[in-house]
Design a protein that fits this description.
Length: 102
């Protein structure tokens, strides 16, 4: 994982690039479950739109059409997403009451 070290408990924002996501049919350490929402294949590249299981956030992964064929992916399928690279930056958004836990 890339990026500077951050203080434990500090709020950070993570940025993922679509070509830095690996898709897998089996769970592995660090992988998050997701559901395939859309597959768009044009030329040598395929875009796979995903919905993360834990918060339904949208993700997009780019893979080659060869990788797409090997995985035999389909809309609605449950898969696992793992970042090859994740850039973390300090979260500069204002702190709200919901951010505090007592």
């Amino acid at each position: 994982m890339a990026g500077p070290a951050h203080e434990e408990g500090a709020r950070v924002e993570g940025y993922l690039r679509p070509h830095d996501l690996d898709l897998a049919l089996e769970a592995s350490p660090g992988a998050l479950p997701a559901t395939i929402v859309r597959i768009q294949s044009t030329g040598p590249l395929a875009r796979v739109r995903l919905s993360a299981a834990h918060d339904q956030s949208d993700l997009e992964a780019h893979l080659t059409t060869e990788e797409l064929g090997q995985l035999n992916l389909a809309v609605g399928q449950k898969i696992f997403v793992k970042p090859r690279r994740l850039d973390l930056f300090p979260d500069t958004s204002p702190v709200t009451a919901e951010d505090w836990v007592i």
